[in-house]
Amino acid sequence: MVALTFQQTHPQQGKGMTLRDGLSAVVQIGKTLWLANDETVHLERLTLAAADDNGISARCGAHASFALGEYLDLPAPANADPEKIEEADLEGLAYANGYLWLTGSHSLKRKKPKLNEGVAQASKQLAKVGRDGNRFLLARIPVLRTETTCSLARHDGERHAARLAGDHRGNELTEALRHDAHLAAFLAIPGKDNGFDIEGLAVIDDRLFLGLRSPVLRGWAVILEIEPASDADAAGFLHLKTLPSEQRCYRKHFLQLGGLGIRDLCQYGEDLLILAGPSMALDGPVRLLRWPGGAKRHQAGAMVADTTLERIHDIPHGDGVDHAEGMTLFSFDGGITQAALVVYDSAADIRKQADNSVLADVFALPAVA
């Protein structure tokens, strides 16, 4: 296990919630871990240190927080009260080519009913569907690296922070999907209701793989493959290239995951690692799978049967707790790795330590194919 230690306070902490309670994405860059809490519009950086007790393999501390608004022009920027800025619902982080890539869920949300306010009022609340504009964030930020740490920059020479063109209602990707035969109908459905919901991100060369927690279509999960242009336009926006073999800006891959959705993705050599879990607000099986050859350049969309996928690990889950949501390739010294680190939303009390730490799990991986 790896202990992740956060500061006690944070400018975007929700009511009664700390950062360790809602971890949704993680990526290792050298000797640092970058994490997201899906209730915030920040990124969190922790630094690796040697372990010292109780079977803990490593400790990560020296917590620093980075407000996304300092590096990106957000789809829904802060108004007069910066404490009320809409959450980004960050669900995926990846590092490639000197950039930290990040994605929001791109999902709608349904209001939780408050039963103590009576049946009629609770019923009205349950009927309300809303959208937080910052959920439609798909962006990259330059990373500045040294031997011991790394940080973020809005500009670094020829490298610039940029996000996919769009606004608080959607972006180029959601617009392109509005006529898709498989996914269009789910764009207007909240993510927790099997509506459109991005949760996984892997960046391979110049391609982005977006894993959908939902919809799951008759037991088949979906990965979208897109390719943003390398240069942003004069306004600082990225645009999606048209994929010649598709005559559109995305490619769809369908994976037979037995009804599970995708919680995160990682490149592993020429393969793609998949963290798979329940698509809706359910407790259920969570698995770490390998799609052999999944990271290779595709000329067409794939239909990946369950017999093709390699089941590597069953990931622990609890009753209302320990929802595995983020995964990264992990090394205890920041070097070559053959392990995966998994972080959990709604971490069980047994994972929490008195110093505001929470324990993440490390799983050995088979040799790279």
Describe this structure in words.
By secondary structure, the chain is mostly beta strands. Helix content is 4%, strand content 43%. It has one domain (2-364): Neuraminidase. It has 2 helices and 30 strands. Strands 1, 2, 3, 4, 5, 27, 28, 29 and 30 form a 9-stranded mixed beta sheet that branches. A hairpin with a 2-residue loop joins strand 17 and strand 18 (207-214).
Q: Could you name the CATH class?
A: Mainly Beta
Give me the count of strands. Answer: 30
End-to-end Cα distance: 26 Å
Radius of gyration: 19 Å
Please state the overall shape, judged from the principal axes of the Cα atoms. globular
**CATH architecture label:** 6 Propeller
Indicate the multimeric state. Answer: single chain
Q: Which fold does the CATH topology refer to?
A: Neuraminidase
As residue ranges, the low-confidence spans are: none
Mean pLDDT comes to 92
How much helicity do the residues have?
under 10%
How does the helix and strand content classify structurally?
mainly beta
Number of domains: 1
- Largest β-sheet summary: 9 strands, mixed
SS strand fraction: 35-45%
Number of helices: 2
